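Backbone-to-sequence.
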């Protein structure tokens, strides 16, 4: 019997593969401040996108405005000790005073004046009891989530030395890969990350991201010094995402830098086109997509997630790309000067081919699809209402809708159509799940609409995909093609972003054509 000999390098390589496979997980949790939190800009944050791209279960308890000490408590790594002056936890939900043992760990100081998000920690464990913890106006209190049960419940005595609190939800995510982005609001990032990582099932299975630096509150010297500390303390986990976005984000999205972008990049700042505003450090929808794409790649590269053909990491765009028009957020607009034929239409069929709609819920009144618009006044608009129902309205107020929400296919894609006959005073709606090859009428035809024609003339009213203010584009939506037919079936406009890319359309507000 012969034996096969392997070199040490080969054995080490095999062991690295085995270790990496054991580290790979299917769950991810995200901890940070407003850069990470949900519901901060009307679009999906990078954490939600990463989970979508990689098919991961996700958890994100991040709160806007918090310091890294607050973040570490929500993550579970920071378990501060509290004393109870009264010595007992009441049996009912009466709020009771507590004091933090400052000698246990220092630097915890969430800035909160009212109960709500910052300084409010729901469902933490204290002496085996589930309580809410509040730090309001520098005063600490606790309150049972539910009164004690039993026929003769008794108050729970608390030792004079106090007891620690631990976030309960955090315990279920200790074995996930964790992503940290914090520090913009203050705190000792190095110390807090040390507590957070020590709490993990695998203390090395996390990624520490550098936060964005926009113009608001920027301190290049202080910022760079702080980031250097993070890199030195966690060289294997740290990734300077802000620097990656600054240098690569525009190219990743196929955007040509504006003059302001060029100024920002030269100044060491994330370009304005990837942030909410020129003086705001927060990322916009495009910025979050840049982060999510690179972070998804990092999780695979570092062995935290196994590579899979089922992953949906979006390809990087290229200038002049052809594929889909992406309208990532409020204010994302593609506009086009209408032809004379379009201006004169009295009867038309508006067809949006392969619209991807990631969500059919919205706090906005309407979500614009396609319209002709000028100076705040609509010649006509084809929209979804707040409940996902198709809606058409013109300047005469001739609005029509149907009773049921539309139903995209499993990929969230649907083709939408509105037929308008001004002379007959009718409107009808149609949907298609096969890119417009076959259409099914949606609801019944609306009749009795105004026969006065507001559709003709008004050459200054642009044709527009998306919208700018309260009537917003569906966040994260994409559109493959727009077709408008005249009443006799002749084609007035047929623009496929998959065939001709941007063409004559003007893009603004982060709208961009991306590869399909």
């Amino acid at each position: 019997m012969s034996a096969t000999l392997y070199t040490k390098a080969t054995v080490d390589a095999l062991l690295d593969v085995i270790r990496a496979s054991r580290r790979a997980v299917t769950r991810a949790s995200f901890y940070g401040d407003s850069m990470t939190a949900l519901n901060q800009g009307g679009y999906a944050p990078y954490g939600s996108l990463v989970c979508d791209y990689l098919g991961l279960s996700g958890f994100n308890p991040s709160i806007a405005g918090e310091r890294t000490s607050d973040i570490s408590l929500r993550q579970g790594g920071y378990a501060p000790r509290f004393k109870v002056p009264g010595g007992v936890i009441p049996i009912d939900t009466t709020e009771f005073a507590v004091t933090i043992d400052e000698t246990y760990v220092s630097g915890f100081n969430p800035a909160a004046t009212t109960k709500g998000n910052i300084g409010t920690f729901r469902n933490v464990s204290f002496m085996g009891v589930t309580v809410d913890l509040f730090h309001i106006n520098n005063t600490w209190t606790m309150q049972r989530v539910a009164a004690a049960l039993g026929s003769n419940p008794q108050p729970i005595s608390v030792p004079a030395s106090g007891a620690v609190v631990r976030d309960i939800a955090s315990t279920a995510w200790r074995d996930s890969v964790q992503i940290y982005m914090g520090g913009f609001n203050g705190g000792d990032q190095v110390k807090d990350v040390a507590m957070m990582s020590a709490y993990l099932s695998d203390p090395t299975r996390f990624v520490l991201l550098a936060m964005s630096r926009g113009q608001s509150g920027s301190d290049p010297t202080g910022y760079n010094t702080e980031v250097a500390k993070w890199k030195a303390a966690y060289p294997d986990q740290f990734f300077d995402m802000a620097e990656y976005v600054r240098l690569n984000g525009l190219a990743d999205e196929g955007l040509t830098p504006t003059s302001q972008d060029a100024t920002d990049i030269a100044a060491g700042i994330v370009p304005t086109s990837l942030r909410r505003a020129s003086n705001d450090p927060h990322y916009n929808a495009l910025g979050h997509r840049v982060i999510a794409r690179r972070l998804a790649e990092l999780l695979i590269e570092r062995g935290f997630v196994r590579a899979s053909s089922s992953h949906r990491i979006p390809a990087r765009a290229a200038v002049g790309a052809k594929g889909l028009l992406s309208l990532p957020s409020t204010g994302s607009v593609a506009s086009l000067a209408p032809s004379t034929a379009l201006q004169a239409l009295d009867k038309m069929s508006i067809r949006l081919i392969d619209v991807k709609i990631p969500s059919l819920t919205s706090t906005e009144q309407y979500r614009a699809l396609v319209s002709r618009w000028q100076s705040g006044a609509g010649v006509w608009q084809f929209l979804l209402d707040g409940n996902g129902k198709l809606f058409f309205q013109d300047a005469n107020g001739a609005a029509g809708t149907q009773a049921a929400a539309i139903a995209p296919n499993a990929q969230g894609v649907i083709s939408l159509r509105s037929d308008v006959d001004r002379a007959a005073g009718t409107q009808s709606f149609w949907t298609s799940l096969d890119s417009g090859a076959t259409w099914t009428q949606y609801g019944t035809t609306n009749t009795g609409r105004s026969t006065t024609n507001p559709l003709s003339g008004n050459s200054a009213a642009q044709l527009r995909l998306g919208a700018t203010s309260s009537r917003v584009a569906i966040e994260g939506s994409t559109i493959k093609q727009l077709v408008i037919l005249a009443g006799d079936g002749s084609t007035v406009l047929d623009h496929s972003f998959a065939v001709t890319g941007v063409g004559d359309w003007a893009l603004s507000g982060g709208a961009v054509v991306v590869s399909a």
